[in-house]
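Q: Convert this sequence to structure tokens.
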Amino acid sequence: MNRNRNWKVAVVGATGAVGIEMIETLEKRRFPVESLTLLASARSAGKTLPFQGKDISVQELRRDSFQGIDIALFSAGGSISKEYAPIAAQAGCVVIDNSSAFRMDDSVPLVIPEINPEDAKKHKGIIANPNCTTAITLMALYPLHKAFGVTRVIAASYQAVSGTGAKAIEELQRQVRQLAAGETPTREVYPHQIAFNVLPHVDSFLPDGYTKEEMKLQNEGRKIMHHPSLRASITCVRVPVYRAHSVAVSAEFERPVSVEAAREVLSQAPGLDVVDNPAKNEYPLPLVVSGRYNCQVGRIRRDCALDNGLAFWVAGDQLLKGAALNAVQIAELLT
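A:
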């Protein structure tokens, strides 16, 4: 990174769960910020958030908010991104967008810095951040793909409620309290009780029975890994965990793969820690990876149902590697 220049940065959706993580990540990674502009809806304007020992006032997002801004990190939902990201890019700002609005746009790079950093340089003003479950899965899958050539993936995700947002965290907390008190749990965010339950339903359903979330691993994985023939079937499940996603993966490869060879490859992968000692009950846990930059992979074993198959379990903080951290890492590629 060129530390000789400081950058004028904006965070759009600054008061949301990911926006707050973006602000904290900029500070923790000592991103060279000259000025930080916090943008959100009118109802959040006037609130203050801490950054580098100062309280910064949140401003209302407007069409003229991006004059003089170098980099804008967006995490305010797809509709806001579709409306304001082109405006920001037109103003000369580079947008790093956390929504799904531009991920499959052929003119917009979709980037995980540990995998395809060179794609970020091809931007035309907007760079897309991948889906959180896709990012966490690919942190382990891509190194294996480079070594052995992945052909297809069958997976199930175990996704924390914070992936839905702050209201979902509050809903889980409220339902736990209500059930502990012998009360009937109330729900607003999810179609069913989430406390002490699992919902095989993340995002809206498509005509073929998959959900939009479930198709992202295949579609985004193809683009990020430059692997258009990848096939992936995933069932996305919401679990009563506050933070960090986990994914159980079975992958089939072109070339034979042993557990020992896979572990060696994974141990050298950036942003990934191998935690794999079942004899000592050591494997990735969402409770452990919460708040950590690196993802973890474990339960590495030959898949007994696939030719050249490998099964593994990967976990990562979806608010960090799945969102805020990845966005700041992309910004670091630009500096």
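The two ends are 6 Å apart (CA to CA).
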